[in-house]
Amino acid sequence: MTSVISAGNHALFAGSRLMYSLGVNGHAPKFFAKLNRNQVPWVAVLLTSSISGLCFGASYIGAGQLWTWLQNIVGVSNQLSWIAIGIASLRFRAGLKAQGLEHLLPFKNWTYPYGPIFSVVLNSVLVLVQGWSCFSPSFQAVDFVSFYIELPVMLVMFVAWKVVKKTKWVKLEEMDLVTDRYDAGMTLEEREEAMDKAKMGQWRAEEGWKGKMKCVGQWLFA
Q: Are residues 109 and 39 part of one domain?
């Protein structure tokens, strides 16, 4: 039960914030970007919650067949998301390197570049082999579609967006790595000092047990 609640809480948070981001960036209707007085994207939360309810109700339709389809589609979506995350990580760091801005990163992913590459390769393999059951002991066309229908759908959506919006592939040298960069609360002098420390590799951990715990956390998750 705690596992289900945890997964549901994560899905609600991630789904609603994704809809909010799509609304802010113009990739979805603007009303998804509405916030209440506590800065919660309530429209996006309501939509995500309603979809969750519909998915739960689907488990009672067609002896669970629709529910199985949804599970298969969601599974593929997760793998495609991690593939996209890995590619974005590689492109981001490559853009920083191409523009000579890597020194501005106070903390660096210690698995780079092997971690993102491993993520892309492993999840690509999972996308291809997770539908193996539809081939054994005999080919099942309906299950095959449920496992792999999202691949052509995602490809069509990507190409359609590129064609309709006429967007171009951004070169590493042309990436905007300045707009919306987070240095809120820092004065000009503090920002310059931080940049100087980053350039000289002088980032030092805080002293005491809190500093040690912070270093361990950054080594594991940064």
A: no
Q: What is the pLDDT of residues 111-138, one digit of tens each?
A: 888 999 999 999 999 999 888 888 888 8
CA distances from 8 to 1, 12, 49, 51, 66 (A): 10, 6, 10, 12, 19
- Statement to judge: residues 97 and 151 lie in one domain: yes
Domain with 73 in it: 62-181
Separation between Cα atoms, residue 89 and residue 111, nearest integer Å: 11
**Is 172 found in the same domain as 116?**
yes
Phi, psi angles (nearest 5°) of residue 92: -60, -50
Using the predicted structure, report yes or no on whether residue 218 has a pLDDT greater than 70.
no
Kindly report whether the global pTM for this prediction surpasses the value 0.70: no
Do the domain assignments include residue 196? Answer: no
Under 8 Å between Cβ of 41 and 32:
yes
